[in-house]
Amino acid sequence: MMEQTTWNFIFIGLTFAVYIGIAIGSRAGSTKEYYTAGGSVSPFANGMATAADWMSAATFISMAGGIAAAGYGASKFLMGWTGGFVLLTTLMVPYLRKFGKATVPDFVGDRFYSNAARLVAVICAIFICMTYIMGQMRGVGIVFSRLFGIEIWSGVLIGGGIVFFYAGLGGMKGITYTQVAQYCVMVFAYTIPVVFISMIITGNVIPQFGLIGNYIKDGIDHSVPLIEKINQISLDLGFKEYTGSSANKLDLFCITAALMIGTAGLPHVIVRFFTVKNVKAVRKSAYWTLSFIAIIYLTAPALGMFARTNFIEEINQKKYQSAPEWFKNWESQGMIAWVDKNEDGMMQYRAGNVFAGKPSFVDSKRLENGPRPVSNEIDHSSGNEVYYDKDIIVLANPEMAGLPKWVIALVMAGCVAAALSTAAGLLLVLSTSISHDLMKKIIKPDITDKQEIKFARIASFGALVIAAYFGINPPSSFVAKTVAFAFGLAASSFFPTLIMGIFSKRMNKQGAIAGMISGISFTLGYIVYFQFITDSREFWFGISPEGIGFLGMIINFIVAFAVSSFTPPPPQEVQKMVQEIRIPKGAGEATGH
Fold first, then answer.
1. pLDDT value at position 194?
2. Alpha-carbon distance 154 to 198, whole Å?
């Protein structure tokens, strides 16, 4: 029988071979193919590619981990990330596609008739994409750490090299068809294990029914709904009810809103809709995208609950010496730790922190009682003895449930696909913002197409180096939290500017520039202050850094409208262009009759 490592190498190796083969076969030969895949992608294929581009490591790895840990409190990710797509596809994408520009900074520069506005948009795109890609690199590092038994930093470097190869080589054309393959890997890797686990825990083959089905253990139906069982277990261990939430309601609203609005302002998602032929194809593509996203998002709550059930049953009140193999494997990589506070040799999983801060470990070797933390004080005020990184839940869940080795390998391949697909899309936006919007439109307008693509590839390499550093040293160890910062930056900068650019003829360049600068500066400053400068959690109005983008968006709108009110209106040709963007093709202007 093959070892788990062999299965992992087979699945990862096969998927990598497919991705690289597609990249070589789809190599971009022109700037149009590099930026928009020549505008020839079918709505069905683009819908699948967009779903893969958008469903990042935060979706695949972190979302279910957050649901497993926080229950109802993690619903902000489900509501925010899906709701944002409705805003994107109804309020923005059809109009941007009709405008015909390949990038968000290109639209901003032309709509607001200003290279200064274009430059501000480029800087915003860089901040957004760099923050987002940090989370993807972290996700790649976690997967490769488990896959090869190496340090996370080594995994980040391996993943970065692979992304650079097929993103830099094929551009949007190569990325699009690679992402179609990656979505197929992701959807099978996400759903197949949940089906297996649902049958084991509830006897239901459909996970969504298993979510409300009866709890089964050792083949015995206990006639207790699983959701009721996990609520009671959570209360017994000192947690809040799994279906309840103790979160600050204002903060929960702001995070959900920031994720939703940020989704509608993400440049790497918006640009995907420029790869289809026309506005009609954009709407069809959006339909397919939402359908493909729904498959995974409707499965995530079940996966989170099953993972929490398995984790508690496998760990709590069990002797450390007889801990399951998966626990020891993750422990050796510093992703799980046990501290025997009461010296009884039993692992006690309870509410509360194990350490006073984030744990760091001596090395990757397991000591007698687990890797010993250094430079961290034990939090003796809590009875909890088990620390785990929420990002491992999806990866560890099949092992917890004792699923076949090929299923575990499939999940590994899916996690890699999720991180690489989004990282590639972000990398393309970064490179095009620098090569097309900065070099071609501002610094060196006379460069050739060949030189422009060369600059794009150089920019890709530079961006990956920086992203790899922050993937190794992220602002938050939880991937979804790091990604949430990117959504906040997009919500406070691009979303208001794009909305005003489409629907307000009066919005001028002075207002747009002032709005973008004030919105993203406030949001970025707030995030940096509370993540890097102070350990205080005395947030303004209780709004955390993940949700501050919503307030940044409001500031953007207010500043933009105030400044535009006291400055000259846009030229008549710009106002006419804005009006024409909103008129359906073939329709005349309204006559009032």
1. 92
2. 35
pLDDT of amino acid 278: 80
In Å, how far from its chain's centre is CA 492? 17
- Token duo for residue 498: 């794009």
Higher pLDDT, 570 or 328: 570
DSSP letter string, 303-354: HHHHHHHHHHHHHTTEEGGG--HHHHHHHHTTSEEE--TTSSSEE---SS-S
Q: Is pLDDT of 445 > 80?
A: yes
Tell the residue number behind the tokens 């935060």, with chain if given: 58
Residue 253 amino acid letter: F
Domain boundaries, the chain: 4-307+404-581
For 149-165, the pLDDT digits (tens) are 677 778 788 877 777 77
Would you say 28 and 453 are in contact if contact means Cβ atoms under 8 Å apart? yes
pLDDT at 592: 38
Asked whether the beta carbons of 121 and 497 are under 8 A apart, the reply is yes
290, 383 Cβ separation under 8 angstroms: no
Using CA of residue 143, residue 149, residue 151, residue 156, what is the dihedral sign?
negative
Beta-sheet pairing, 346-347 with 318-319: antiparallel
**Rounded (10°) angle between helices 104-111 and 479-503:** 30
HSE value, Cβ hemisphere, 13 Å, CA-based, for 444: 9
The per-residue pLDDT for range 502-560, each reduced to its tens digit, is 999 999 999 999 999 999 999 999 988 887 788 777 888 889 888 999 999 999 999 99
The model's pLDDT over 51-97, given as tens digits with 9 standing for 90+, comes to 888 787 777 777 888 888 888 778 888 888 788 888 887 888 888 88
- β-pair type (386-388, 336-338): antiparallel
Task: State both tokens at 291.
Answer: 């359908």
Query: How far is the C-alpha of 116 from the C-alpha of 104, rounded, in Å?
Result: 14
Yes or no: say if 422 and 135 are a contact pair by the CB < 8 Å rule.
Answer: no
Give me the helix-helix angle, 43-54 and 279-297, nearest 10°. 50
DSSP classification of residue 215: E
d(CA 183, CA 144): 19
Confirm if 215 and 229 have CB atoms less than 8 A apart.
yes
CATH of 4-307+404-581, one of 2.60.40.1930, 1.20.1730.10, 3.30.450.20, 3.40.50.300: 1.20.1730.10
- What DSSP designation does 375 have? S
Which tokens sit at 565? Answer: 């009110």
